[in-house]
Write a structure and sequence with these properties.
single chain; about 450 residues; mainly alpha; two-stranded antiparallel ribbon; 6 strands; globular
Length: about 450
């Protein structure tokens, strides 16, 4: 009897350790915190954490079961298609194609299976989400420090010798915070993705720390200077507000008014902050055709949409060069294979893709784009179908996340580590509800 208790205790401890590693470290450790061996895929800190969690699985001696619910099958379908496209590109770009296929198997498939293995109750889901949300509070503090001082604390972890994204930008005389994500836009995506789960936890547990995390991530989006993510975050807050009960709406109205009051006060006493926020907001308004005077310099992209609009010509470039079916393969832009069209100067080779939807076509062609579109559409509509209206139900947070993530893909390529962790949690949540009879398969 004592031996059985000891085994159960060890399994619980290992499960708690795996959840803590995923929630506290995995998502936030930067990609440039890594070491390399030849042309092999980088050994990032996040990949080492996946390996450690896999070892915990072996030590726990729990049955290793592949999730087979409908949500998991849709993920397997996406990965099978993308890996097949990668294989088709091996003959012309073997290193990039093999590395991408490895990433899909190791960073996505194995990660999701490990999450479903260790996260088996709704309490464990909430525990992992709580770690993620509370960790975002620390990153927000780092972001504010970077915004005010120009120093990114996470940059001290830079150990990679490869060309890993670690960009720095200024806007309106202020440093755009990138925190641990290599680029300010991706930090903005991270913040808007965390907000729905911070709201869910606050709504369910009524702990003020989660409300503080909501505010911290709103601040994070602002200091990132990412206008697309500011808009996405605003949409998330509106959707959350209008799906509350009437009594709850008044409660959240008070919270939102307090937050606005704090920001208004800070803007009054810090002129540079007032200019920074107001010019970004006016630039967003200009995108929708509103006649506002934007006095700040946005690098020749005052409305913030022109550079993104130009990138749609990348799909035309695919068609012109006979690559529409399978695309150019992984890292096509980095390899100098993609061009965009400027009306003033014609076609120019580029080295980055800033629209996730365009990236689907450029890297995987129409075949991969259809698979990606089906994957996101399924998860969005499935989460809407499963959610319980006007409650603190977990699936209310998930549908807000998937909606915001799809909005973010219009101005970024997303944050894959956070996405796959949350997809793993979604699959786990579906399995838990299916077992309890709360949701149909």
């Amino acid at each position: 009897m004592q031996q059985c208790k000891d085994k159960k205790f060890m399994k619980t401890r290992m499960s708690s350790l795996a959840i803590a590693l995923l929630g506290i470290l995995f998502i936030i450790l930067p990609e440039y915190f890594a070491f390399e061996i030849g042309t092999l895929p980088s050994f990032t800190a996040s990949r080492i954490i996946i390996l450690l969690i896999f070892l915990l699985v072996l030590l726990s001696k729990r049955p290793f079961i592949l999730p087979i619910n409908k949500c998991a099958k849709v993920l397997y379908f996406l990965l099978a298609v993308l890996i097949a496209v990668d294989i088709s590109h091996v003959s012309v770009s073997s290193t990039y194609a093999i590395n991408d296929a490895f990433s899909l198997i190791y960073d996505c498939l194995l990660l999701v299976i490990l999450i479903v293995h260790f996260v088996r109750t709704e309490d464990e889901i909430d525990k992992l989400l709580s770690y993620i949300v509370k960790t975002s509070l620390v990153l927000s503090a780092f972001g504010v420090i970077e915004f005010l001082t120009g120093f990114n604390i996470c940059s001290v972890l830079s150990t990679s010798s490869r060309d890993v994204l670690q960009a720095t930008y200024e806007r309106l005389g202020m440093r755009r915070s990138a925190s641990a994500f290599g680029h300010a836009v991706y930090y903005g995506v991270y913040c808007t993705s965390v907000i729905p789960f911070a709201l869910y936890l606050f709504d369910k547990y009524k702990k003020r720390i989660y409300l503080v995390c909501v505010i911290a991530n709103i601040v994070g989006v602002l200091v990132s200077g990412s206008r697309g993510q500011m808009l996405s975050g605003f949409v998330v807050l509106l959707l959350f507000y209008f799906t509350r009960r009437k009594k709850e709406k008044w409660k959240y109205t008070k919270y939102f008014l307090i937050i606005l009051g704090v920001f208004a006060f800070l803007c009054l006493i810090v002129p540079s902050l007032r200019i920074y926020i107001s010019e970004n907001i006016k630039s967003i308004m200009a995108n929708f055709g509103l006649q506002v005077m934007v006095s700040a310099n946005f690098g020749g992209n005052t409305k913030g949409v022109s550079s993104r609009w130009i990138q749609l010509s990348g799909i035309r470039w695919l068609i012109m060069n006979g690559k529409f079916v399978l695309g150019y393969g992984p890292a096509a832009a980095y390899r100098g294979l993609v061009s965009y069209y400027w009306t003033t100067s014609g076609w120019h080779t580029i080295q980055s893709v800033d629209i996730g939807y365009v990236g689907w076509f450029l890297y995987y062609g129409i075949i991969g784009a259809i698979a990606e579109g089906f994957f996101y559409a399924f998860y969005l509509f499935d989460s809407i179908k499963r959610r319980k209206k006007n409650t603190s139900d977990l699936f209310n947070a998930f549908w807000l996340f998937f909606a915001s993530y799809l909005l973010n893909l219009a101005t970024s390529t997303g944050v894959s580590k956070l996405l796959w962790v949350l997809v793993g949690l979604y699959i786990s949540a579906c399995q838990i509800r299916n077992r309890s009879g709360g949701i149909t398969k």
